[in-house]
Amino acid sequence: MVAAIVAAGSLLLAGCGGGGNSASGAGANVETDAQGFALNTGPAQKGGTVNILGAVDFSHLDPEMGNDGNVLNFYRLIYRQLTTYSNEPGKGTTVVPDLATDTGQPNADKTVWTFTLKDNIFYQDGTPIKAQDFKFAIERSFDSAVAIGQNYHRPYLDPSGQYQGVYKDPAGLKSIEVPDDKTIVFHLSKPLAGFPDIAATAVFTPFPADKVTGPTSIDQNPIASGPYMIDSYTRGSQLTLSRNPNWKPETDDVRPAYPDNYKFIFGLDPSTIDQRMISDQGEDKNAIASSTNPLLAASLSRIQQPQFKSRTVRNVPNCTTYMAMNTTKQPLGDLRVRQAINYAVDLKSNQAATGGEQMATITHDMLTPEVPGRVPFNLYPSEGDQGDVAKAKELLTEAGYPNGFEATIDVRSIPVWKAQAEAMQQSLERVGIKLTLNVIDASTYYEVIATPAKQHEMAITGWCSPWLSGIPLLQPLFHGRQITATGNQNISQINDPEINRRLDEISVITDLDQQNAEYAELNREIMEKAPVVPLDWATNLQMAGSNVGNAFAHPGRTGYIDYTSVGLKDPTK
């Protein structure tokens, strides 16, 4: 396992920096990694249209509501926040100013954060962006109609959990102060050195209150603050973007805004996407596969030549794929049953279903490889990571289930996820657990499993963060007080007093080295309670057309190619 972690870490560094080899053939002079895949597909120029080929439409156009990697990637094209993540290769986890002049000014104990807005920042209609717009937008994120997106901010701005949003309580949160049009001050319930990372989340997208007609109006009529705005949208078919005439490039050091237009095409069969990207014909020379459509495992053998590898980018491993076990449903409330399942799962089979070693690294814990202070461990070892059937049966017998039981597993309607769920079926069948797959539409999957009333016994999901800390990687997934009726990220619904206490204690530690060490230990303590089965760190492969430049794996975009970075090498083609 240590070797695997070292390899993954090396891959992360290689995928974001220079070095490597130079591809020959059609991709000459493109820097590649040790296996020949592109580190960056080369320089881009202004102009033209970039096409994004995908099977899945966006979950929501409202940044308060979307929470999957693909839609968060898309949001950066049309929206801006107080801060964001650098677009420079090798610095994708570095927080930088966006609409604010800096990454925030804290008080001594980091409980008060002050941001000052830049000059000359506007919405698509020319309306100036004001500090009051951030307060309004953040407060509307607490409304139950939209509260299904990112929620890191909630325990810091509303520790009581009682605030129901600006529509029900127009007085708003006392924790957000706006002394003037240019200044916004956040009074946190506890210290947080990483608040600039929270200020980079999609819920910190500003909106003018007088142009938002109701809780869900933004989902129907987005108001752009980024370099692009929506031109047309036919749900399930196509979305096009054109330049926002009131975006000022001198205020944005992150988004190069190379293309004149983006065209997102939805509803394509994943194998068709692979075929089109490999064939590289016509307008597909100006295309990339969407974040949700990495190469299928069946296509790997077709891209081994340098001319294909030089336009194929490997995602960096900052996402953990895992199986959550709903602890509120029996028999998964029994620790012995959850531990038995951890022993029973054949991780090697799951890796094969994901595409093999080129597309996934097996993990035994929930922290991603580059998290500071992380200590690797394996509490449920087995020969060759293929599962310990005897130990699993022993625990099931102790729990009163010698013949296993029946359960349903929720899974996203994406080929690789279904293959993983089928691998789970085969693993658990060996110990008598019979799984039924509940396949959910990919665009609504996260919304469904984040609604506890709609959850089944198990679910395959993933969790990513460019903020390399236990705060985003452990707090929302395992804190019992963060279980909500909608937008719930604690999919296992574990509400363990000891875990809750430890999460509370660690969250207020101001020494980052000590905090990281404590989160690393808690990572182990959580796995002792076995609410999840960690599966892998995805290192998917994403293809770009031969005329697409500046495509590289971006940790700030959950490891994918960043939509804002790409452009055409020759816009006249």
Automatic annotation (TrEMBL):
Q: Where is the Solute-binding protein family domain?
A: 94-482
Spell out the protein name for this chain: ABC transporter substrate-binding protein
Q: What is the lineage of its organism?
A: Bacteria, Bacillati, Actinomycetota, Actinomycetes, Pseudonocardiales
